[in-house]
Amino acid sequence: KVVASYTSDGIAMGSSQGDVSLTFPTSTPQHGAWTYVGDNQYAITLLSVGYDIATAESSGLVKINLLVKVKKNGDQLSGMAKVQIFDTDGNPVDNFSFPLEGTRIKPEPFN
Question: What is the pTM (predicted TM-score) of this model?
Fold first, then answer.
């Protein structure tokens, strides 16, 4: 599961289940940017720092590229994610892709 926020000026932030773990990989929340690419589609790039929770030593970077399409109602999106993992020298060590779907969080009345 992931919770993400996108600001009107192109900033993207996210946090995912598994960001903090007692085993590798542990990573910081994701930070990045988004841009409109046309036809209700958005390109998003997020970065996260991988680290060893016991020593706080860096294990590299995680880069997540998303291409999502927002449905006409504006409340749902779907798309693809491509994840790349880099070691501390910037060398790629793993990559994978997966489809994604999301629903907008709406404010609820305070009762």
Answer: 0.87
